[in-house]
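In response to the reviewer comment on reproducibility (Comment 2.3), we provide here a single inverse folding case reported in full, input and output, so that an independent group could reproduce the run without further information from us. The structure tokens appear first.
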């Protein structure tokens, strides 16, 4: 029996991951699993840069546009779902492709994730209501009380992660950080990781052009459609938050677009920092660097 190989294509936003994945999937006659925490959701295909049907070229994509905006999802659920889909693909093919820039999802699949308690729906809903009423600063203060260790290290702009750490701490009755073992899991297949990398200024130019293209493709109209649901965690993302502020009269459209470009560049820098760790320290998985260009 031929060895099975999972190809993981990752890199910063706007680096060309989807195009490369589709090209490789066509050459290898296989399917793609999205590892993007926002592409999971229906109704926001523009802001999440979901490849269109023509762009997909008939290649089957999994875990894309499959959730309602009100659905909850996590890296642990991604690990479970992705492994199930990979197993299904491997029954017919020797290669499967995962593509995305959600680094927690990529790590969960490649290395495994600690088992965490299931959060009761009533707890999650109650916390969501309080968060909506009292704001992000209240949520961060709650984390500082429940788990000072995580509060010191977490990205304070990543509200989704802060919310997750709080709800897990509440469900477990102990700090979220105390549940993290850091132990790696082994997978019954080879993993080949491809990281897209290039000049930072080139990446920033690609990001600026992508935002302009999103505006041309109807991002403002997409944001208006989901604006009434703006309190949902699934909509707490760059591209929507800035336009929501524009709708609220807090900034001009020109400023909102510039902010989307700037905040996307900031997000890309964080991705690059995360990826640098893999490039320099990951001896467990075969890692290759593919250049991106203008």
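Designed residues, in position order:
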């Amino acid at each position: 029996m031929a060895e099975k190989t999972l190809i993981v294509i990752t890199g910063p936003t706007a680096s060309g991951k989807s195009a490369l994945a589709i090209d490789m999937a066509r050459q290898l006659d296989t399917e793609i699993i999205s590892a993007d925490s926002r592409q999971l959701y229906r109704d926001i295909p523009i802001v999440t840069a979901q490849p269109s049907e023509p762009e997909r070229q008939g290649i089957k994509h999994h875990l894309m546009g499959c959730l309602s905006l009100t659905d909850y999802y996590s890296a642990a659920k991604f690990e479970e779902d992705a492994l199930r889909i990979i197993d299904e693909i491997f029954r017919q093919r020797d290669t499967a492709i995962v593509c995305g820039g959600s680094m927690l999802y990529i790590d969960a699949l490649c290395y495994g994730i600690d088992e965490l308690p299931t959060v009761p729906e009533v707890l999650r809903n109650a916390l969501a209501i309080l968060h909506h009423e009292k704001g992000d600063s209240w949520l961060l203060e709650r984390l500082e009380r429940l788990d000072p260790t995580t509060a010191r290290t977490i990205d304070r702009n990543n509200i989704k992660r802060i919310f997750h750490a709080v709800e897990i701490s509440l469900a477990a009755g102990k700090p979220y950080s105390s549940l993290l073992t850091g132990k790696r899991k082994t997978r019954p297949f080879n993993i080949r990781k491809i990281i897209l990398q290039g000049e930072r200024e080139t990446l920033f130019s690609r990001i600026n052009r992508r935002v302009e293209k999103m505006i041309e493709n109807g991002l403002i109209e997409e944001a208006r459609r989901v604006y009434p649901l703006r309190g949902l965690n699934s909509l707490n993302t760059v591209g929507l938050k800035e336009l929501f502020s524009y709708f609220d009269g807090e900034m001009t459209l020109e400023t909102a677009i510039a902010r989307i470009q700037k905040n996307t560049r900031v997000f890309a820098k964080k991705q690059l920092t995360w990826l640098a760790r893999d490039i320099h320290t990951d001896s467990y998985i075969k890692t290759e660097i593919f250049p991106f260009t203008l």
